[in-house]
């Protein structure tokens, strides 16, 4: 069948397997142009099939020669459904890394579930060997409660007042006003339950108790702060409350790992990039487009992969760590520079009604959004039929 992009309210409902292959190969090729570094040898990534987690897997696999286990929640192809981009990313990452002779194992399923934690622990114990680094890079819309079975959902809402902001409807290529309503107390609690730190803490606690971590092992997760430009919807909204909780879990994890294995727990404040999750957040499309434009102009733009490469090479395993007063790694320092923020702010206001589509930053933002789903690669023939029967035989292993 032919696969054309299918978008609904800035959410892709399909992916192109051969484009996803190009995406992963591009990340690996990019990593090979960057310096290698001494880092962890055995890594567990929770949420490593796309976005920050996938770039983490690529840079640690390619630049530090690490072996990886990835736990991700992705859908396989079925009938006329193409399967999710992350499904194909997992398959093509494994294929591309096969010649390295290193282990890159995938578990596809629910990272919140105890049964998944048991499977992963069993695999570490019997086959993989003890872990040097746990990366928690999950972005989830829902989490099943272990005892009630209830599906708890996260929401992207404000707290207190409604906020109206501009967003880019990528399918229709139009600027739209979007009003985000305030969350109820229950919605705030639910978002913290899904996107906060309790599950990360649970993973680290269980792996420590089962004696599956090497001495000095580290755990890291990714948070976002951003600016006043997007604070009402992000840091001061429901997702911000979840990030407060994640950061508090980071402090607990740091104490736990320090005491038990002389390790450490880290929070990296990462910069805004184009991922499935980020485009879904109102105002972020506008913000990231202008941010790309301004950071490129100042020569401080980094791709998702470059950002994660610098994080691990310089700040997690290197000696150039930048910490803030809360002990968080501030790899977002270029994005947060006062002059960069002032220019983003001025440009966003100026282009609110017109002109945003003329920016190279916006073109890049939109192209990247298509590419993370396997579209807009020059070397893929999108008119050609894709043999889904044959591709459906592939599985992440
Ligand atoms: P993404 O949507 O690209 O990736 C999310 C990952 O979580 C995927 O691998 C997905 O399979 C996995 N996942 C979701 N539900 C799961 C479940 N129940 N079980 C197992 N795996 C599951 O997201 P992105 O943007 O890379 O986000 C990763 C983390 O980075 C999040 O904590 C996010 O808040 C943070 N972050 C993202 C920024 C951005 O601009 N995208 C900026 C700063 C931090």
Biggest beta-sheet profile = 6 strands, parallel
Oligomer: single chain
CATH architectural name: 3-Layer(aba) Sandwich
Mean pLDDT: 95
End-to-end Cα distance = 25 Å
Q: What is the structural class?
A: alpha/beta
Q: For the CA atoms, what is the radius of gyration?
A: 20 Å
The CATH H-level homologous superfamily:
NAD(P)-binding Rossmann-like Domain
Count of helical regions: 14
**Which strand order do you get reading across the main beta sheet?**
5-4-3-6-11-12
Beta fraction of the residues?
15-25%
Silhouette: globular
Q: What would the keywords be for this entry?
A:
Rossmann fold, 14 helices, 397 residues, binds 1,4-dihydronicotinamide adenine dinucleotide, 6-stranded parallel sheet, alpha/beta
Summary, kept brief:
The protein is built from 14 helices and twelve strands.
Summarize the structure in words:
The protein contains 14 helices and 12 strands. With 397 residues, the protein is of the alpha/beta class. The protein has one domain (10-391): NAD(P)-binding Rossmann-like Domain (Rossmann fold). The strands form 4 sheets. A 6-stranded parallel beta sheet has the order 5-4-3-6-11-12, with helices on both faces. The chain has a two-stranded antiparallel sheet with strand order 1-2. A two-stranded antiparallel sheet has the order 7-8. The model has no long low-confidence stretch (mean pLDDT 95). The structure holds 1,4-dihydronicotinamide adenine dinucleotide.
